[in-house]
Amino acid sequence: VQLVESGGGWVQAGESLRLSCVVSGLRFDEYVTGWFRQAPGKEREGVAAMNSDDGATVYADSVKGRFTISRDNAKNTVYLQMNGLKPEDTAVYYCAATLRGSWPLAASAIRGATYPYDYWGQGTQVTVSS
Predict the structure, then answer these.
(1) CA-CA distance, 107 to 126, in Å (whole number)?
(2) Most exposed: 25, 43, 70, 116, by fewest CB within 10 Å?
(3) For residue 6, what are the contacts with CB-CB under 8 A and spacing of at least 6?
(4) CB 83 within 8 A of CB 66
(5) Are 35 and 102 in contact (CB under 8 A)?
(6) pLDDT per position in the chain (130 positions), as tens?
(7) Is 68 strand, coil or helix?
(8) SS3 state at 30
């Protein structure tokens, strides 16, 4: 199983980025996909997740209204559109996947609960300057 993120970079506050994560080695439509981030000196936190069954989504309060998660099952790819970026969004962003039957728990991880997603990417750096 591989999850490969791309699209990170350096931007100024207020600008946008779109992250992509290509997933291989599993039945993509059977997995919830999520985005997490970790800033220097801080714990990893959930950003957004999307259920494969019904397209339900969940967002962290800090990104709600600015970030949008989406997925293309035909391309085995999950996206994170990030608009209105702020310096506090600076972090390494990770894509993750877990079985769709665990959606309530997977969603709770975005809101701060502890839940171990099954597979993780290597991360992509996002840096936002003020």
Answers:
(1) 23
(2) 43
(3) 19, 20, 21, 22, 124
(4) yes
(5) no
(6) 999 999 999 999 999 999 999 999 999 999 999 999 999 999 999 999 999 989 999 999 999 999 999 999 999 999 999 999 999 999 999 999 998 888 999 999 999 998 899 999 999 999 999 9
(7) strand
(8) helix
